[in-house]
Write a structure and sequence with these properties.
By secondary structure, this protein is α+β, with helices and mostly antiparallel strands. It is 39% helix and 19% strand. It folds into two domains: 150 residues, Jelly Rolls; 78 residues, Winged helix-like DNA-binding domain superfamily/Winged helix DNA-binding domain (Arc Repressor Mutant, subunit A, Orthogonal Bundle), CATH 1.10.10. It contains nine helices and eleven strands. The radius of gyration is 23 Å and the shape is globular.
Length: 270
C-alpha cells in the first residue's frame, strides 16, 4: 500500500485515452459532457489501496478505467464478505451517491488500477439535467440489484462451483462492465479473493466450466465462449447437476429410434 500520498492526493486529470474508457460520457449532450469532463479526475491505485472506506462520507462517484477492484466489508467477527469485483468499465456506488450517505463497504485495489472519480456535486447536477445520465444510472441500479439477488441465492445454496460461475458471470456483465469484452484479465488468486475460495478450488471449478464449453482458460485471463451457458451453469452447479467434474468426458448422444410404420388394416391393396 502506498505510504507517501493517499489516492485522493495523487489525483490528476484524465488523459484522452482514459476518457474514452468512461462509458456514460457518450450518453450526455455536448454541454453536459463538457461539464463532466472538466470535473472528472483519475488516480493511480496501487495494490491494497483503498478507494473508499466504510463509514466515510461520499465525495465521488467512482469507476474503473483499468485494473480490478474488490467491494467488501468485515463483520463483527472480523470475517470479510466480498460483494463484487469491479473490472474495467465498471462504475459503482451510485446508490450511495444518490442518497449522499456514508459508504457501507470498502473498495480496495486487487492490482494496480486507474480509478476515475466524478465529484458528488457534478453527479447530482447531471441527475437534475441529463436524461441520458439518468437512464445510465437507472440501468446500473437495476443490473446491480439483479446481481446481488443472484449472489444471495447462491450463497444460501453454498456450492463452490456455483460461486465461481456466479462470480465470472457477474464480471462478464456487458451492461455493468462494458470494458471487459470477451476476455477478462484476472488471475486465479484474484478470482479466489472475489469468491472467497482457495486458488486450488477455483482452478477445479474453472476446469469444470471449461469442460462444459462456457469459458476457456488462457494465459493471464479467461475468455468467455458462451455467456448464456455460463449464466445457466450458476444455478445448475448450485443444484449439483449442471457443471460436470473436471475431466468428465461429454455424454454420448442417445440414438433416436426410428418409429415403425404399420400398415393400416383394411387398406386397399395396389
Amino acid at each position: 500500500m502506498s505510504e507517501e500520498l493517499s489516492l485522493h492526493q495523487r489525483r490528476r486529470r484524465p488523459t484522452p485515452a482514459e476518457l474514452q474508457g468512461i462509458p456514460w460520457l457518450a450518453a450526455l449532450a455536448p454541454a453536459e459532457r463538457d461539464r463532466a469532463m472538466d470535473a472528472l479526475v483519475v488516480g493511480d491505485a496501487q495494490v491494497g489501496d483503498f478507494v473508499c472506506r466504510r463509514g466515510r462520507p461520499v465525495t465521488y462517484w467512482f469507476g474503473v478505467v483499468e485494473g480490478l477492484l474488490k467491494m467488501s466489508t468485515d463483520n463483527a467477527q472480523g470475517q470479510t464478505m466480498t460483494f463484487a469485483g469491479v473490472p474495467p468499465g465498471g462504475w459503482f456506488g451510485e446508490g450511495t451517491a444518490v442518497k449522499r450517505e456514508p459508504y457501507r463497504y470498502d473498495i480496495q485495489a486487487l492490482r494496480r488500477s486507474v480509478v476515475a472519480g466524478l465529484p458528488i456535486d457534478t453527479f447530482h447536477w447531471l441527475l437534475d439535467h441529463s436524461l441520458g445520465f439518468n437512464r445510465f444510472v437507472m440501468q446500473q441500479l437495476n443490473e446491480r440489484l439483479g446481481q446481488f439477488i443472484a449472489a444471495r441465492e447462491i450463497e444460501r445454496l453454498g456450492s463452490p462451483d456455483a460461486r465461481v460461475a456466479r462470480g465470472l458471470a457477474a464480471l462478464f456483465n456487458p451492461l455493468l462492465y462494458p470494458g471487459v469484452g470477451h476476455v477478462l484479465r484476472i488471475t486465479q488468486q484474484e478470482l479466489g479473493y472475489l469468491v472467497g475460495l482457495s486458488r486450488q478450488r477455483v482452478n477445479e471449478a474453472l476446469a469444470a466450466l471449461q469442460a462444459q464449453g462456457a469459458i476457456r482458460v488462457e494465459y493471464g485471463g479467461l475468455r468467455v465462449l458462451d455467456l448464456q451457458a455460463l449464466r445457466e451453469s450458476v444455478f445448475a452447479a448450485a443444484a449439483g447437476d449442471g457443471v460436470p467434474p473436471a475431466g468428465t468426458p461429454p455424454a454420448k448422444p442417445v440414438p433416436r429410434r426410428t418409429p415403425r410404420h404399420h400398415p393400416v388394416r383394411g387398406a386397399a391393396r395396389a
